[in-house]
Amino acid sequence: MAIHRVNTGDYENQLRQKAERLREAYSGYTDLEPEVFPSPPIHYRLRAEFKIWQEGGRAHYAMYRQGEYKKPFVIEEFTVGSELINNLMPRLLTAVNDSEVLRKRLFSAEFLTTLSGDALITLIYHKKLDDAWVAEARALQEKLGYPVLGRSRRQKLVLERDYVTEALKIGNKTYHYKQVEGSFTQPNGEICRAMIQWAKDACGDSGGDLLELYCGNGNFTIPLAEHFNKVLATEISKVSVNAAQENIRMNGVSNLNIVRLSSEEFTQAIDRVRPFRRLRDIDLDSYDFSTVLVDPPRAGLDAETCAMVARFPRILYISCNPHTQLDNLKALSKTHRIERFALFDQFPYTEHTETGLLLVRK
Fold first, then answer.
1. How remote is the C-alpha of 298 from its chain's centroid?
2. Where does this protein hold S-adenosyl-L-methionine (predicted)?
3. Would the pLDDT of 171 be above 80?
């Protein structure tokens, strides 16, 4: 067992090198310098998951290097985590080690926090959670001041709630979000705000209607809705769709519809390949789409979806994987040129790079 401390290193130099690599990778498609959005150098991660290493009757936070799952690195500090995560970590560990019921067969702890100061702690076990655990967990909630959720095989015990609430100020307006445990949320809050602001700026003069694929809980959808006459968004995750519907109501957005469809299904629907009952209340012919926003998973856009979005005058493409975005650009560059190009440093001190492209029809 080794002690591991996160090394924040020379952030400015690391980010400059990342931008240079990105510019070179995209040089076949644009001469633009990427707009670079730096992360805070510390306390930028709003969520974290730790394995629990048990030794000598004590629990420790731990992580493993890929391929070395029998060699844990004990986490004694986590400077990349939000200040709230760093505040809660030692308090949770002390409480767990003071309670045999909470500690026994605990193998993972997850923290979900927000820029607005909310938090949720999930404890995951290799045992059935009983009334004794519920009593101890309720006492833990009182001690920490934030809700605790328990998980084990085929069990999910929600003592208070299974979500956090976020408030993001973008420009002069604040947007409110429900973020559900286990569903996707942006891990770097300040970069999330930068991405939304960049997307709003890119869409400022678009007009017409917006189609968004992979909309999640409405993270981009809700702030962008004010730039368009109507918005239609799709998402395959039922949990995220339900959260998005609540977020629409919370923010008072009236020109936005969200439908639970995959990108492949929507492509079939808009091409009239097959009808979908989930679209029975949506008149696709009533939309005058000027812009499509895509924020796909790491695999990028499948060939059919890529061909479909190429028919739009403007494509806003947010990517967590430049390699697959570049693959898609081989096709999209035949019809569109890059008008804006951005680097969002979601994960500092790693090779990971997130990008934003505004593509405009030639």
1. 12
2. 186, 214, 219, 235, 295
3. yes
